[in-house]
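ok so for the tutorial part 2 we go from a plain amino acid sequence to predicted structure tokens. step 1 is just haveing the sequence, like this:
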Amino acid sequence: MFGQGLPTLLPILFLAVSPSLIWLFFYLKEDTNPEPRYWIFIMFLMGIVLAPIVISLEMAASKAFNLFSISPLGGGYLEGALLLFFIAPFIEEAAKYGAAHLALNKNPIMDEPVDAMIYVIVVALGFAAIENVFAIFSFIPIGDPGYFSAAFNFMSMRFITAVALHGLASGISGYYFAKFYFIKKDKFLIAKGLFFAASFHGLYNFLVSNRDAVPMVLAGILLGAGAALVIFMFNRLKHFQTYQQAAVDEPNDRKL
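step 2 — the prediction. this is what the tokens look like for a chain of 256 residues:
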């Protein structure tokens, strides 16, 4: 990786990070009261730092599954399925949500429900940026003829698949974080958010693990449905915020 030289590495690194930055710009447009840029940077950085930790946890889980084989069929098929469709999605979604919760719970910077979704998504996009870096250097032969074009095509595909997935899944858990933080202090909401986010992530992994046309089309439909759901969740939180503000303002209007 580092033997390629800066003129080769910098454009590739920019390509790897750019999908997360584009989605970040899109999601920030959903916040009518923009968050401080330094907090956006901090949360994005937390996602970056989180990535190698999560990857290490997933590698440890994989080794544990290999060590304590539980598949009666042999060949590790059951272990691989559990890891890809259940364990890895839960580890990733719990880590992204957990980082945001630790940084933001009782933090005065979170002053409206939409903030919770935004910040969890920002952590996810930081995580996805480093995941892209690992992916691009794993699958693209850097330095070979046409490598930049191949890297661009690879990142374009990840922009609408893996990076989109991370933002959408964390948007789901972020919605339930907002409900927990601003509406009802019920820890079941956190568990519910992680369950739905990990299930969404795991179902996507299941569909794309089969490269046939039908599962890939279904994966695209799943992402489209996830996008519609996250937009709906944003609007629900904005409605709640407006409703609450109206309820607070009404008594003052009467006094006037």
